């Protein structure tokens, strides 16, 4: 299949970027989206041009490294990660717009690569448990009901890719933070610090310059790990409760 | 008290204030509609005039109306504040957007809808509330009690096609604003539950259609009556 690509090119975080149009030919509909970009980059290198920079790592949909805002949607037309998106989701002759995540808190480093360390700093603010974990504990040492374990696991599947921020009209990180708060807050080890955690993580989220939530639902609709909007309601509940009852004055 | 000031500055508390004031305004709309319904009684406005007079002299209602104005101001100021933060959170816009595929139009345009409602509110308050407060209304006497004939002012206003049309169009804005705002307020308050959320959403949609529709019906009926 032959495609026209409109790709955001930006030299670094200090310069302004622009869309550059590229043509790629004879792309297999079985190749992944990132493989299609690899083909483009091989062509560019052969011509002595600078290849298009983009983030990727595992290419198995589990690391959260790939991003790309494709034709107006994070990770493209399917609710998956960009690495798991295949060219069969497009038609030959189609024009595809490829942009980086756009948010003040995710500055562009180069082309399609953004700095998502704001998420790391939110995790550092409270996305952990302060106990010495030691060796691997016995499986049933701490009894956790199956339902709670499943719910915590559902939230733990958040890979921190930032699609929620990219999809949100306010570039809000509420879905990401709510997934982390819910995952840890449901488990007995995490409950101990639940109030401080939600207070600190929300404070860091605000400090990073993410927007507020308008409950549009775009984040949950685009999340490749299907984190539900109900998590945000739970975080609101947890945060309001924590602010009113925690001993952090 | 730094925890309190810090809390009030947080994005979640700002949204909380939007939700709480919004829910109060929804409650107010319901009461307002219950009063307005009396405009279509076939009694030349007697029931409505007596109702308006009673409300204007009830200290509790007067206190609530002060809160109502305060909540409108808070709702507007916080929406401006939040919108500014939300706009700055994305300094460079996307070149291509497909937002309609993942979120309803109303949810993405609450600010525009709210602004249009605010413009309507200014016209609305100028036309009725202001006139009422400044005693520039003819009086009428029922059973020995003299009171302003508010009905006359309303009738005169809605006999004007343009005034009636602005009112009816504005009710569409109110409806769209409510169709997202009603359920959204509950979500912000943290009230999301598999049992209740579908009901809240259904009630919200129903409220957003029925209440503005009945509000809009009143000037339409008054206008039609004025023709005959």
TrEMBL record, chain A:
Transmembrane regions: none
Superkingdom to which the source organism belongs: Bacteria
Named cofactor requirement(s): [2Fe-2S] cluster; [3Fe-4S] cluster
A Pfam cross-reference name: Fer2_3
4Fe-4S ferredoxin-type domain ranges (all copies): 149-179
Alphabetical list of NCBIfam families matching this protein: PRK07570.1
Protein known as: Succinate dehydrogenase/fumarate reductase iron-sulfur subunit
Organism: Imperialibacter roseus
């Amino acid at each position: 299949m032959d495609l026209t690509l409109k790709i955001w090119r930006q030299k670094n975080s200090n310069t302004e970027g622009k869309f550059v149009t590229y043509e790629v030919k004879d792309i297999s509909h079985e190749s992944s989206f990132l493989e299609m970009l690899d083909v483009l980059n091989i062509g560019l290198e052969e011509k002595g041009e600078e290849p298009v920079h983009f983030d990727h790592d595992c290419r198995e949909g589990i690391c959260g490294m790939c991003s790309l805002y494709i034709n107006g949607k994070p990770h493209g037309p399917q609710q998956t990660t960009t690495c798991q998106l295949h060219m069969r989701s497009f038609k030959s002759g189609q024009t595809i717009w490829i942009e980086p995540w756009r948010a003040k808190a995710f500055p562009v480093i180069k082309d399609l690569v953004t700095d998502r360390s704001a998420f790391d700093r939110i995790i550092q603010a409270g996305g952990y448990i302060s106990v010495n974990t030691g060796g691997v504990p016995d499986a049933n040492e701490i009894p956790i009901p199956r339902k709670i374990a499943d719910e915590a696991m559902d939230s733990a599947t958040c890979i921190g890719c930032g699609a929620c921020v990219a999809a949100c009209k306010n570039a809000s990180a509420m879905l990401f933070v709510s997934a982390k708060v819910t995952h840890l807050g449901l488990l007995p080890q995490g409950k101990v610090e639940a109030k401080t955690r939600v207070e600190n993580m929300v404070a860091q989220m605000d400090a990073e310059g993410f927007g507020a939530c308008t409950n549009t639902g775009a984040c949950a609709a685009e999340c490749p790990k299907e984190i539900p909007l109900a998590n945000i309601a739970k975080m609101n509940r947890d945060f309001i409760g924590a602010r009113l009852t925690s001993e952090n004055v | 008290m730094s925890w309190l000031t810090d809390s009030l500055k947080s994005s979640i508390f700002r949204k909380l204030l939007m939700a709480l004031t919004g829910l109060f305004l929804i409650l107010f709309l319901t009461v307002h509609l219950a009063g307005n319904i009396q405009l279509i009684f076939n009694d030349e406005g007697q029931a409505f005039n007596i109702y308006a007079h009673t409300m204007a002299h009830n200290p509790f209602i007067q206190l609530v109306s002060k809160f109502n104005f305060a909540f409108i101001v808070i709702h507007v100021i916080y929406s401006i504040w939040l919108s500014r933060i939300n706009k700055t959170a994305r300094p460079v816009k996307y070149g291509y957007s497909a937002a309609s595929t993942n979120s309803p139009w109303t949810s993405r345009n609450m600010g525009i809808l709210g602004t249009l409602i605010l413009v309507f509110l200014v016209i609305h308050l100028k036309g009725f509330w202001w006139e009422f407060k400044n005693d520039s209304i003819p009086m009428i006497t029922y059973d020995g009690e003299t009171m302003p004939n508010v009905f006359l002012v309303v009738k005169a206003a809605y006999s004007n096609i343009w005034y009636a049309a602005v009112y009816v169009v504005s009710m569409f804005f109110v409806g769209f604003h409510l169709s997202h705002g009603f359920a959204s307020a509950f979500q912000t308050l943290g009230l999301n539950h598999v049992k209740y959320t579908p009901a809240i959403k259904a009630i919200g949609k129903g409220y957003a259609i029925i209440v503005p529709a009945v509000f809009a019906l009143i000037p339409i009926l008054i206008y039609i009556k004025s023709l005959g």
